[in-house]
Amino acid sequence: MSDDDEGEGDKDRAQRVRDRRSRRDRRDRREPDGDMSESDEQESDTSQTSVSSQTAQTDQLSQTEQTDGNSESQTEQSSQTTQIEQTDQSQSADTTSQMSQTQSDTTDEQPLNEQPIKERTHETFYLRDDLRRELRRVTGQANLDFEMAFDTELEKNRHLRPLLLYLGAKELEAMEPSEIKDTLLETDLLDNVDID
Q1: Distance from CA of residue 51 to its chain's centroid?
Q2: SS3 at position 189
Q3: What are phi and psi of 190, to 5 degrees?
Q4: Are 165 and 159 in contact (CB under 8 A)?
Q5: Residue 80: C-alpha distances to residues 66, 75, 192 (Å)
C-alpha cells in the first residue's frame, strides 16, 4: 500500500468517525431514549453516503489543485531562482568592479614605497637554472651583508629583486650595443645572440 493510499484511507476513516459522532449527537438530541426510527437511519445513511462522496470529490479536487499548484509553484520557483542568479551575477560583477576601483584608488593614494606587494604589477621572467642559482647566490649574499651591517633583512620582492633589476637596467643603459653583444657572447650564464 502506497503513502497516498494510506493517506486517503486515513482521511476516509476520519470522515467515517466524524459522521458517526455527528449521527450520535443528532440522535441524542432528537431521541433521548435511544430509539431511532427507520426513516432517521435511512436519512443518516443517505447523508453519510453523500458526505463520503463529497469528501472523495473534495480530496480529488485538492489533489488536482496541489498538482497544478506544485507545477505553478515550481515554475515560479525556477523563474525566481533564475532571477536571483542573474541578480547575484550582476551584483558580483558590480562588487568586482568596485573592488578593482577601490584597489586602484588605494594604490593611487598610497606612497609607492608603502604599496602592498600583491597590488603591484607582476612580471614573470624565464631564467636558465644556472643563471637563477647565480642570482640567488648574489642576492642572498647581499642580503646577508646588509643584515649584518644594519640589523635589518631585505625583503625579496620589495627590495632585492627590484634593486637587481634597477642596477641591471642602469648598467644596461650605460652600455654600447657592441658591449651588450660581447657580454652575451662571453658570459656562460646568458644565452648567445645570433647576429648575421
Answers
A1: 53
A2: coil
A3: -115, 150
A4: no
A5: 20, 8, 64
Q: How far is CA 27 from the centre of its chain?
A: 66
> With b meaning 16 or more CB within 10 Å and e meaning fewer, what string describes 102-115?
eeeeeeeeeeeeee
- pLDDT digit string (tens) for 54-102? 555 555 555 555 555 455 555 555 555 555 555 555 555 555 555 555 4
In the chain, domain spans: 3-107, 123-186
Cβ contacts of 172 within 8 Å, gap of 6 or more: 180
Mean pLDDT of the chain: 74
SS3 content of the chain, % helix, strand, coil (to 5): 80, 0, 20
Contact status, residue 48 vs residue 23, Cβ threshold 8 Å: yes
Residue 34: its pLDDT value, please? 47
| Cα dihedral across residues 169, 172, 173, 174: positive or negative | positive
Alpha helices in the chain (DSSP H): 3-30, 38-109, 129-150, 161-174, 177-186
